[in-house]
Design brief:
- The structure holds two protein chains of two kinds.
- By secondary structure, chain A is mostly beta strands.
- Helices cover about 0% and strands about 60% of the residues of chain A.
- Chain A has strands at about 5, 10-15, 20-25, 30-40, 45-50, 55-60, 60-65, 70-75, 85-95, 100, 105-110.
- The radius of gyration of chain A is 14 Å and the shape is globular.
- The N and C termini of chain A lie far apart (about 40 Å).
- The relative contact order of chain A is 0.35.
- Chain B is globular.
- In chain B, strands 2, 4, 5, 6, 9, 10 and 11 form a seven-stranded mixed beta sheet that branches.
- The relative contact order of chain B is 0.33.
- Chain B is mostly beta strands.
- Chain B has no helices and eleven strands.
- The chains are: A mainly beta, B mainly beta.
- The interface of A and B includes residues 45, 88 and 99 of A.
C-alpha cells in the first residue's frame, strides 16, 4: 500500500532556530514530491521535486529529494512566527490522478 | 491568482441530513478534487473529476457522492450525514497535465451532531 510518512508530527521551536522536517515515502510509480504549507485552512504550494539531489530554494526555505532512499527534507532557517503552520508532504504517482498525502508536521514558532 | 472558493467555512448538521458542499474555481482547471482532513490521518481523497460530468472514486468514497455539471463547479454530497463524517473538507483543482500542483480552497469544517 502506498504511504507517505512525515516526522515529527509536531515541533515547537524559538524564533531564529533552524528546523528540518522529514518525509519518507513508499509509492509505486513515483512521479513527483510536493511540499505544501497550511496556515489557516487552504494549503499553499511550496516546492515540487522530481529529481534527486537538486535543492529547491525559496528564501529561508529549501528542500531536497533522495529517490534512492525515498525521502525528502524541508529546511527552514532563521524561523519566524509566521512560519507556524502545518507542513504537508505529498507524492504524486503516474497512472492516474493519485496524490498521497502525509499526516503533516505541525510547526509552532515561539516569539 | 487562482481562486478556489468553498461556499461555507463552517457547517453544523444533524445526523441523517443531506449535506451539500460547493466548490468553485476560476482558472478553467480540468481537474477538481474533494479531500477530507482528519488529525493524524492527513488528507484523504474522496472523489475527483477530470472533466464535466466525469467522476472517479478516491480512497474513501463511501457515504459520499459528487456532481460536476459545469467545469468550474464541483459539489460534494453527503446523502445522509453521520457523525463519523465530521471533518475538515478541502476542495482542490489543477490543470490536466503532468506535474501540476494543486490549488486548494479554504476548507469547510463540517460538524455532524
Amino acid at each position: 500500500e502506498d504511504k507517505v510518512v512525515q516526522s515529527p508530527l509536531s515541533l515547537v521551536v524559538h524564533e531564529g532556530d533552524t528546523v528540518t522536517l522529514n518525509c519518507s515515502y513508499e509509492v509505486t510509480n513515483f512521479r513527483s514530491l510536493l511540499w505544501y504549507k497550511q496556515e489557516k485552512k487552504a494549503p499553499t504550494f511550496l516546492f515540487m521535486l522530481t529529481s534527486s539531489g537538486i535543492e529547491k530554494k525559496s528564501g529561508r526555505l529549501s528542500s531536497i529529494l533522495d529517490k534512492k532512499e525515498l525521502f525528502s527534507i524541508l529546511n527552514i532557517t532563521a524561523t519566524q512566527t509566521g512560519d507556524s503552520a502545518i507542513y504537508l508532504c505529498a507524492v504524486e504517482a503516474y497512472g492516474g490522478f493519485k496524490t498521497i498525502f502525509g499526516a503533516g508536521t505541525r510547526l509552532f514558532v515561539k516569539a | 491568482d487562482v481562486k478556489v472558493t468553498q461556499s461555507s467555512r463552517y457547517l453544523v448538521k444533524r445526523t441523517g441530513e443531506k449535506v451539500f458542499l460547493e466548490c468553485v474555481q476560476d482558472m478553467d482547471h480540468e481537474n477538481m478534487f474533494w479531500y477530507r482532513q482528519d488529525p493524524g490521518l492527513g488528507l484523504r481523497l474522496i472523489y475527483f473529476s477530470y472533466d464535466v460530468k466525469m467522476k472517479e472514486k478516491g480512497d474513501i468514497p463511501e457515504g459520499y457522492s459528487v456532481s460536476r455539471e459545469k467545469k468550474e463547479r464541483f459539489s460534494l454530497i453527503l446523502e445522509s450525514a453521520s457523525t463519523n463524517q465530521t471533518s475538515m473538507y478541502l476542495c482542490a483543482s489543477s490543470f490536466n497535465s503532468p506535474n501540476e500542483k494543486l490549488f486548494f480552497g479554504s476548507g469547510t469544517q463540517l460538524s455532524v451532531l
